[in-house]
Amino acid sequence: MRLPQARLDQVLDRFHQVEARMGAASDGAEIVRLSKEYAELKPVAEAVQTLARARAEVEDLQAMASDPEMAAMAADELDALNARLPDLEREVALLLAPRDADENASAVLEVRAGTGGDEAAIFAGDLFRMYSRYAQSRGWRVEVDSLTEGDAGGYKEIIATVTGEGVFGRLKFESGVHRVQRVPATESQGRIHTSAATVAVLPEVEDVEIEIHDKDIRIDTYRSSGSGGQHVNTTDSAVRITHLPTGIMVTSSEKSQHVNRDKAMKNLRVRLYDMQRQAKDLARSDTRKSQVGSGDRSERIRTYNYPQGRVSDHRINLTLHSLPQIMEGDIDPLLNALIAEDQAARLADLEAEFS
Predict the structure, then answer these.
(1) Read out DSSP for 332-354?
(2) Could you tell me the pLDDT band of residue 5, with boundaries at 50, 70 and 90?
(3) How many CA atoms lie within 13 A of 278 on its CB side?
(4) Largest CA distance in the chain
(5) 3 state DSSP class of 74
(6) From CA 184, how far away is CA 186, in angstroms rounded?
(7) 3: Cβ–Cβ under 8 A, 6 or more apart, which residues?
(8) Average pLDDT of the chain?
(9) CB 168 within 8 A of CB 183
(10) First to last CA, the chain
(11) Concatenated DSSP letters of 109-168
(12) Fewer beta carbons within 10 Å, N or C terminal of the chain?
């Protein structure tokens, strides 16, 4: 892809403007805004400058090639540089392509048992363990917000906050229906059962501005039935907030009612923000052939087949015969393939813009 020089100049001009303004700004809010924009623009500007230097060097080498004494040396260097240019162009293009504003955000991870009874709850537990082990390998922190255990193990529902750099960008394509095919421990006949669990990954954005009017919410307090000793069982400290216009309901059941209210309001903002994201994702998916990033959480995205030891992602027709390793948290091969597919779609969008 040959990126227009005017577009590259535009990036550098804006970067230098922000850089200059940061040195002159005195307002705290403006400094914060400029610092954020500077951090986002810096890697793009550096990549653009590297590409510009490479293009200039190509021109210099082409001029040297006309000199008989320098032609042989120039030709070798020119071949090497021309081979490197497409990679530099692609790197810049990816940085310029429309990207998810929440790429670097932490995330709320929700795993719920679907069809399949006890086996579905056990599978939901297996999935949560898989994500937890993956998070651990990347140095992310996992904090369970709420859970409902299954009767035979696992979870009917578990919600956790995963905190770290780039969590949402890595896990966002995990949202959807995950299907498992295996012989349950409770199956005496050795028959293979099919069960399912749903996964939702929501960005947790600290400074998101979602206006919530008092008239639009109902706040209920109730006695927690969870573990936690006498205090939990005798005090109406748990909080349930219902957002009346959308029907979204969030709960929190720590020991402090004040903490629960704050936590529930934060979770409500996350979910309202996610509703806006889903609407944008679905609108964007109408213009894309790829299902990756479509935002359709009812879509069956992956099958875990235990008898054959394979995992298949149906969106990109990828099958890996490494199910044990994947269930132990080695999910990068899946995530990298999904991210690559999304990058290809974003590059296609950018190419269409320049054509």
Answers:
(1) HHHHHHHHHHHHHHHHHHHHHHH
(2) confident
(3) 15
(4) 93
(5) helix
(6) 5
(7) 51, 89, 92, 93, 96, 354
(8) 85
(9) no
(10) 10
(11) EEEEE-SSHHHHHHHHHHHHHHHHHHHHHTT-EEEEEEEEE-TTSSEEEEEEEEESTTHH
(12) C
Q: pTM for this one?
A: 0.70
| Tokens encoding 44 | 């793009």
- β-strand pairing of 176-182 with 300-305: parallel
Q: Over the stretch 181-229, which tens digit does the pLDDT of each residue have?
A: 999 876 767 788 999 999 999 988 665 567 788 898 899 888 765 444 4
Residue with tokens 């400094």: 31
124-174 pLDDT, tens digit each = 999 999 999 999 999 999 999 888 999 999 999 998 999 999 999 999 999
Does residue 89 contact residue 1 with C-beta atoms inside 8 Å?
Answer: yes
In percent, the amount of the chain with pLDDT more than 70 equals: 88
Phi, psi of 336 (to 5 degrees): -65, -40
C-beta of residue 113 within 8 angstroms of C-beta of residue 121: yes
Q: Could you report the per-residue pLDDT of 291-341, keeping only the tens digit for each? A: 555 445 567 999 999 999 999 999 999 999 999 999 999 999 999 999 989
Which strands form 217-222's sheet, in the order they lie side by side? 217-222, 238-243, 248-252
Whether residue 257 contacts residue 239, with contact meaning beta carbons closer than 8 Å, is answered with yes
User: 3-state class of 208 per DSSP?
Assistant: coil
Q: Supply the DSSP symbol for 16.
A: H
- Rounded to whole angstroms, the Cα distance separating 37 from 31 reads 10
10 Å CB burial of residue 110 (0-12, 13-18, 19+) is: buried
Give the H/E segment covering residue 278. helix 257-285
In 3D, which of 297, 294, 312 has the Cα closest to residue 177? 297
Phi, psi of 85 (to 5 degrees): -55, -45
For residues 227 and 202, is the Cβ–Cβ distance under 8 A? no
| Neighbouring-strand partners of residue 184 | none
